[in-house]
Amino acid sequence: MASRIDTLRDRIRDLQRQLDAEWEAxxxxxxxxxxxxxxxxxxxxxxxHRAARMHLRDFLSAxxxxxxxxxxxxxxxxxxxxxxxxxxTLYQRxxxxxxxxxxxxxxxxxxxxxxxxxxxxxxxxxxxVYCGYANGLIAYVREIASRTEAYWCPIxxxxxxxxxxxxxxxxxxxxxxxxxxxxxxxxxARLKGGNGTV
Length: 198
Prior knowledge:
Layout: H1 4-29, E1 32-35, E2 38-41, H2 45-52, H3 56-61, H4 65-76, H5 78-99, H6 122-152, H7 180-192
Antiparallel strand pairs: 1-2
Helix pairs in contact: 5-6, 6-7
């Protein structure tokens, strides 16, 4: 018999499928599709996009001075972001094969494609590349961290935690010592795609 949590998770998965279908319908209304990972616009869409572009000088002249002054702070984060990217990628390449954890494909998380939009000026495109990299990197790091947590410590916290990763729902309840070793083995097996034994 399915628990209430299992039922709710099934409903969430169903809602996610419905949301994906709605995104696909929206792509069709905006007249583009993906072919082998590349965006393909229908005829006339690029011309419409170019006509809507705000020229760079107009964009810059509309910017508040304090916004311009914060730009070095924002772009200065590129150094720790790249270092984090290198460190986490190296970590999973060294450690995940030892643990038998499937590697996280970086390309599934770091997607740089907004610079192809003709209605963006050069600075907007640069900003979009930066944001796509930074947010994709954080998602990539989170996935690596969640796989690590599922392997080493699949126990929920005592307090409610906001923004948990998708594996968290399968973690053991805090304070539930019954079958701890067995449940830990099951968590590792789920992570590896196996049958529940380690």
